Amino acid sequence: xxxxxxxxxxxxKELLRNLEGSELNVHTGPGAKGRIAPPEIQMTLFDGRDKLxxxxxxxxxxxxxxxxxxxxxxxxxxxxxP
Length: 82
Fold this sequence. Notes:
mainly alpha
């Protein structure tokens, strides 16, 4: 990397090796703090929105005009706003 100090490129290489080895540590080297724990759960796009998902899946979008689709989206947005 042109113009970067050697310490910077060496640290970048160290971090890359760390990530590629699936050993994502907060710190590497002496006194490393250890692996970062994965999140307990993965939230989904429709977390808590099962009713909305069902309504979207039931739409026959290939039979809708663009205007009907926009109107339906506006209706669903208003109906399911938090």
